[in-house]
Amino acid sequence: MPESLRPAHASAAPPTRLPHRLVLHIEPDLLDARTTRHQLHTCLKSWPMALPEDRIADALLCAAELLANAVVHTAKPAVLTATWTGSALQLAVHDQSHQLPLRRPQFGSAATSGQGLNLVQHLANRWGVIPPTGPTGSGKTIWCEIGPAAPPEPSQTDSPGRPSRQINPRHS
Fold first, then answer.
1. Torsions phi, psi of 126, nearest 5?
2. Domain count, the chain
3. What is the CATH number of the domain that holds 60?
4. In DSSP terms, which residues pair with 78 in a beta bridge?
5. Alpha helix locations (H) across the chain?
6. Considering the domain boundaries, does residue 154 fall inside one?
7. 2 found inside a domain
8. pTM of the entire predicted model
9. Tens digit of pLDDT for each residue in 29-70?
10. Are 91 and 39 within 8 A, CB to CB?
11. Are 40 and 21 spatial neighbours (Cβ–Cβ below 8 Å)?
12. 42 is in which domain, residue-wise?
């Protein structure tokens, strides 16, 4: 039998296809957002990712914050997309609101709400907002990227307001 037609050894791993992608549609209900987080966790555990457990936990926390913001502030359906690129996990939540998010000042450990985007900024390597395009755009997308290593501590120049690490990539 020619070499090219011989079956691979049983120990050979199948080729990994990248990127891995998960798309989940969320109803404007906190219980549905919770179910979505559980589905995301199950999916991330099944993907062959080079992310340590603590970074997977960070990604789940970022996803929870982005989902909660979409559900609480828009009261409309949203879409969560998770993509493993081979080097980082990209999370994006698209909602139907044209209102861009504001990152509030950090209130300290006693604050019980309003700190979601500060948390995302602290945990994600990069994050940003893709605003609606044109007057009839279908809403905005807030995204973040989680890599294997935690991001450096935020600089003193990071201030409340719009995202300080705002980048507007086009996810494929």
1. -145, 155
2. 1
3. 3.30.565.10
4. 26
5. 30-46, 53-74, 116-123
6. no
7. no
8. 0.75
9. 888 888 988 999 999 999 998 899 999 999 999 999 999 989
10. no
11. no
12. 20-146
